[in-house]
Amino acid sequence: MTSTTLAGPGSPSGSPDASGPSGPSGFLRSKLGGLPRPFWALWAGTLVNRVGMMVQPFIGVYLIESRGMSLAAAGTVMTVFGAGSLISQVPAGWLADRYGRRITLAGGMTATAAGMAALGASSSFPAIVASMFVLGLAIDAYRPASSALVADLVSPADRPRAYGLLFWALNLGFSVAMVAGGWLARAGYGWMFAVNALTSLAFGLLVWRAVPETLPRRAGRAGARGGDGGSPDGGSPDGGSPDGSGLRDEDDRLRDGGTPAGDHAAPRGADGGTSPGGRAGAPRGGLAALLGDRLMIVYCLISLLYNMAYSQVFTTLPVAMSGSGFSTVDYGLVIAVNGVLIVVLQPLTGDWVGRRDPGTVFAAGLIVISTGFALTAFVSSIAGYAVGVVVWTLGEILTAGLPGAIVAILAPSHLRGRYAGMYGLAMSGGAMLAPLVGTRLLAAGPVTLWLTVGGVILVAAAGLLAIRPALRRRAASPEA
Questions:
Q1: Cα–Cα distance, 441 to 447 (Å, whole number)
Q2: Half-sphere exposure of 218 (CA within 13 A, CB side)
Q3: Least trusted range by pLDDT, from 71-80, 96-105, 142-151, 226-235
Q4: 164 close to 346: Cβ distance less than 8 angstroms
Q5: In angstroms, how far is CA 49 from the centroid of its own chain?
Q6: How many other β-carbons are positioned within 10 Å of the β-carbon of residue 52?
Q7: In angstroms, how far is CA 451 from the centroid of its own chain?
Q8: CB–CB of 446/438 below 8 Å?
Q9: N or C: which end of the chain has fewer CB within 10 A?
Q10: Per mean pLDDT, which range of 54-58, 226-230, 265-269 is the poorest?
Q11: Rounded to 10 degrees, what is the CA torsion of 469, 472, 478, 480?
Q12: Dihedrals φ, ψ of 182, to 5°?
């Protein structure tokens, strides 16, 4: 182990069995090694935050049981929350690119804690609606900054593994939160709000103390202060930490002299080259550059389509199972299969996925997911539903770290926050469309629903295969 990273495969080590991949330490290094310490601080904060994320899964029950709302009123409040989360993504990405990843993430977590406290203290309907909207704006504002941090800190070859480990932390934390949240709700909902607020603050504090600012220097603006590539608070113009240490030195330390994650500045077009009008040393910035990247826009549309279909797991699957005579406990047991498989298997696949073409593996994973959903059309027992979950979960594990890794391939380094925000917007949009589309398909029958869902995911897989050559060219470009 070096001073900043866990030893990777083939790295020197004092232990006799550490030199080869066959020993236990070699196995662990292949799964966890080679990632910088700031990444593990981000990972730990993500896990802590997710363990405390208890309010969101139980918010509907809280509004109805504790605040006496009708089902329709509770639905309105939750829609306001979803709208806040949807519109926060692109502005949060801009903040991460303009002011820095660390302050955006820490600020978002602080705002989330304040929103939790305000919601827990609100009793009138207008106050609850206002608090839920603010909480919706804040609760996912960290995501573009977190995604950009991984792209800044981790080399391209290790990004699928790194994003996959964050995905694993989210699922592990959520599993704990569901159990702990149920117990705390019995003791009083105030405990849930308090724990959620404290873990949000802990995440923000951990990132602030343990993760350096990684905002890249923009080409052509290395000496500028206060511009898009400079520090707005008068700090170092390369986006370095307030003590004046620059990104380049920090990146060199993080990678032990390796190549930085990327300092390409010019946005690129769908063919993988620089976008029209862009030239090295004079990058276009902001929304115009993002919207001019046709490959990114197509990828976001594919992602919206996929997430609209995948989100049926949380919207129409419980309704469909209830309509077939199954209880909420049955649904919980079936979905628990997904969580167990992810926690056990997902960390074992990251290094394998990282060595392969991301577009090909992502498309293959979507085909497996499509098969699992299509199988659901023909099941009539708990065991049958569980088999379907096993199949689509295996596909989900295969794709776990790839969405973020592909966004990192597509994004110029100084626009990584904005690109991650646009991707977050697409995913949130798919989740919001899911119940509107899914309930109408379910009205036509479960077979229609699940075969359509499987077909939509196949279309998304075909879209990924269609853009695969452009993704390869983008990944192979000097700026990547």
A1: 9
A2: 25
A3: 226-235
A4: yes
A5: 13
A6: 26
A7: 27
A8: no
A9: N
A10: 226-230
A11: 130
A12: -60, -40
Where does residue 286 fall: left (phi above 0), alpha (psi -120 to 50 degrees), or beta otherwise?
A: left
CA-CA distance, 123 to 137, in Å (whole number)? 20
CB 421 within 8 A of CB 92: yes
Contacts of residue 272, defined as CB under 8 A and 6 or more positions apart, other chains included, come to 295, 470, 471, 472, 473, 474, 476, 477
| 365-424 pLDDT per residue, tens | 999 999 999 999 999 999 999 999 999 999 999 998 899 999 999 999 889 999 999 999
Output the six-digit token pair for 440.
Answer: 């109408």
Contact of 412 with 264, CB cutoff 8 Å: yes
Q: Quick count: other Cβ atoms within 10 Å of Cβ 124? A: 9
User: What distance in Å separates the CA atoms of residue 190 and residue 99, rounded to the nearest whole number?
Assistant: 34
- Report d(CA 92, CA 145) in Å as an integer: 8
Contact assessment for residue 388 and residue 404, using Cβ atoms and an 8 Å cutoff: no
Confidence (pLDDT) at 363: 96
Structure tokens at 134: 């603010």
Instruction: Write the DSSP string, 237-263.
Output: TTS--TTS--HHHHHHHHTTT---S--
User: Ramachandran region of residue 239, left (φ > 0), alpha (ψ -120 to 50) or beta?
Assistant: left
Packed helices 159-187 and 189-210: angle between N→C axes, nearest 10 degrees: 150
411: three-class secondary structure by DSSP? coil
The answer to whether the CB of 475 falls within 8 A of the CB of 271 is no
Q: Left, alpha or beta for 34 (phi > 0: left; psi -120 to 50: alpha)?
A: left
Q: How many helical (H) and strand (E) elements, i.e. helices and strands, does the chain have?
A: 20, 0
The structure tokens listed for 19 are: 């030199």
Kindly report the pTM of this predicted structure.
Answer: 0.78
Side-chain half-sphere CA neighbours of 73 within 13 A = 14
* Alpha carbons 170 and 183: distance in angstroms, whole number: 20
Q: Distance between CA 259 and CA 155 in Å, rounded? A: 8
pLDDT in tens, 204-243: 999 999 999 998 865 444 444 344 434 433 333 333 443 3
Check: CB of residue 438 under 8 Å from CB of residue 449.
yes
- Token readout for 17 is 């069995």
| Closest-CA residue to 258 (of 164, 351, 166, 158) | 158
334-365: pLDDT as tens digits: 888 888 899 888 888 877 777 889 999 999 99
Q: Which two tokens stand for residue 45?
A: 């904060």
Question: What whole-number percentage of the chain has pLDDT above 70?
Answer: 78
